[in-house]
Design goal:
7 strands, three-stranded antiparallel beta sheet, about 140 residues, four-stranded antiparallel beta sheet, mainly beta, Immunoglobulin-like
Length: about 140
């Protein structure tokens, strides 16, 4: 006889309590939904630029949108993915944003998307050496 182990998840209990009391939509995401998105973000910095790679399996470049806010130094990515499951087709939206330091040129960003990987290249500002000024 095999004994099945079940684990108590306090988040599910809290979510049920809130839903019962206030009749609201779920407060917390189901972990299955979080894992189903499958996106991973990798940052790689070199002397000349920073590369950001975001795995977006099942998302075409037509379904991906990227915006740059130069004032706030933020990059926003929005992608839509359609998944077929037992209940039919569902569309998920993936939103990612990250801040970029003052060392980078936001006006020269390039982005490519191949095989489900969005690659964003952000060039660094070329630093000029400190100049000594003679006072006369």
């Amino acid at each position: 006889m095999t004994k099945l182990t079940t684990y108590y998840n306090p988040i599910n209990a809290l979510e049920r309590l809130v839903n019962e009391q206030f009749n609201l939509m779920p407060v917390f995401h189901n972990l299955e939904d979080i894992y189903r998105t499958g996106d991973t973000v990798r940052f790689n910095s070199t002397e000349t630029h920073m590369n950001v790679e975001i795995d977006l399996p099942g998302v075409s470049k037509e379904d991906t949108e990227m915006k740059v806010d130069s004032d706030e130094r933020e990059i926003y990515i929005k992608a839509r993915r359609t998944v077929q499951d037992q209940q039919g087709k569902k569309t998920f939206t993936v939103n990612r944003s990250f801040s970029v330091g003052k060392d980078y040129q936001l006006d020269n960003i390039t982005a490519t998307q191949n095989n489900g990987v969005l690659t964003i290249t952000i060039p660094k500002i070329k630093k000029t050496p400190v100049k000594l000024i003679h006072i006369t």
